[in-house]
Amino acid sequence: MTFEELPALTLDEKAALTGGASFWTTKAIGEIPAVTVADGPHGLRRQSSDEMTAPSVPATCFPPAAGLAQSWDAELISRVGVALGEECRAEGVDILLGPGVNIKRSPLGGRNFEYYSEDPLLTGALATAWVRGLQSQGIGACVKHFAANNAEDDRMRSSSDIAPRPLREIYLRAFQRIVTDAGPATIMCSYNRVNGVLASENHFLLTQVLRDEWGFDGVVVSDWGAVADRAAAVAAGCDLAMPSPGDASDAELAADVRAARIPETVLDRAAGRLIGLARKAAAARDAFTGDRQYDADAHHALAREAATRSIVLLKNDGALLPLSPSGSIAVIGVFAEQPRFQGGGSSHVTPTRLDAPLEALRAAVAASGGKVTYAPGFTTDGSGADAALVEEAAEAARAADAAVLFLGLAAAQESEGFDRTTIELPAEQAELAAAVVAANPRTVAVLSHGGVLRLAPLAGLVPAILDGALLGQAVGSAIADVIFGEASPSGRLAETIPVRIQDTAAYLNFPGEHSHVTYGEGIFVGYRWHDARDLPVSYPFGHGLSYTTFGYSGLRLAAAGDGIEVRVAITNTGDRAGREVVQAYVGLPGSAVARPPRALAGFAVVNLAPGQAQEVVIQLRRDDLAYWDRRVDRFIVEPGSYHVSVGASSRDLRLAGNIDVEGDALRIPLTLESTLAEVFADPVAGPMVGEAFAAQLPAGGADTQETLGVDILSLIGSAPVGRMTALSGGALTREQLEQFLAAANEAAAQG
Ligand code: BGC
Asked: Does residue 223 have an active-site annotation?
């Protein structure tokens, strides 16, 4: 909305518009309607009253992002977005506060369960699908938390201190993709500081990057309580302070405008954006003439499908899985009965129903004449191992054909609000696992957790592991479907499982100290770090087995459109139907900038019957080959022969090839700060400076190899050319140098 189109509002009314009316609504002023928001992202948390701790109405609890991302399935996630939109509409919600797309910088991040991945491309692609699905229903998304909100520790004060390359290439990239590809209605700025400036007051992030560079035209909403200074926030581009900051705060903002602390036009801009949002929301409400109910059964079925696709088969020695439902099974672990299926905090949903694994396993086994026994094995109250529970569990395992052991983290061990201090499985569970496997080696471990767990000890014990992360309300039926082979597992890790926490990228800089976090690992986050350091991992990014097998053949690479087209034939070489997630990684050996050996640049999902083959096409975008060049402050594609590898995980690469890519035009203008070597490399300035320089050397040129033991350019090639004035004893004047450089810059500008 332009300034002229603003309805006639007083200054006080405009100020009031930029602060919420309550915990979940914006203000209705005159003919401007209120907008209602509610938490997501994996389900609707529509609270029954305005109190922070009020219960929320029942809603479908889909798998939280940590689980859902393991599906690597944009189409599925878009359907989840549609379903969430229907539930919002049924409950009178205009904006759903999600998706959460911060990068999992450290496995210890307390809110990792709410985020997708350690990889920006995977995060961006999946969250784009979520936003599109949701917004197709007329409900606005609120992409959060912008930006670099990668830890919970000291989250409202801490500064994420990040160099330009990692900021652009890792921490902003998913946001950029979602903004440009999906056009979210709103963005939520985060609590933390970024390079010393509060995100809510960060003009660079909220205006320069988000609006001027990426073209975002929606509303920036503050995280709840993130605004410290209303005027500074509005001036930076944060349009709405949530929740209601109160009348006194609105009056203070108006007073700041009257005192010319910020121009009134800046407030108009924010108010105009809010009016635009309110009108759009009202129009979407009016346009919908359908039934405001949603089909809870259909949504539960979708939650089950999503959960099933999100389960990762980490290992399956001796093809222990799938189990036969007609045998006897010892189900062990309290999470079988009281499942861990979502995380704690603002995203916590009241599910419409809950499929507990124990019940689902019992139901499947009962239908096939098998038998289930159950032993809780441990408690989650922190009281440690209980010998009697361990013994009971071992007994049950011994007496059964196979044991299914439910392990993981309890709600109190990870949540929004604090980071974890360890990635170890709780000691009592490790002890239980050892006793159960000793009693029955045919043991399958099933894991529930939001953040990554160290699995090296467990993986050395059990022959089969299913990693569910967090699976939402259909957790039990989804696990039963996979355990008994109703579905072949097809999930893939969206995060590396390290051998040790000490091996992880942010280990020495997490969570930071004295309200500063140094992102010292730079762009080397997640698998980028493990691969660049050539570190062993327990399970690599992208890993996940199936009950069938897939062959890769016929890789073809072609320059296509604005990037690289990858074609590869995938064949189901096993005897069951299955779903393969084909991953394409790109590296540029010999790059002029630091790069990981490979980075995910595209992926595709294919469903194949036994023996069936299909050619899969993956389009790699040129943008995703680029690095951020801080000299020119933009993304640059380097010219060169790019190495494209295709496979089933970041460390299971089946085929590879190279393809030449033309680079972006990039010329850094020469200045007195350019090095002598850079100047010599220039076709115009090089000879000019060379000649003037040679004139300073003794007649016939000096053999500096003889006098100095090194050739002269190796010695002073890194010196800024401006210093040649002093180094030549004043013989090369500053004016002369400036002339040479200007000539070179002009010649380059004329091409
Ligand atoms: C969280 C947001 C959430 C908001 C409203 C904040 O504490 O960081 O993700 O949307 O509260 O509940």
From this structure: yes
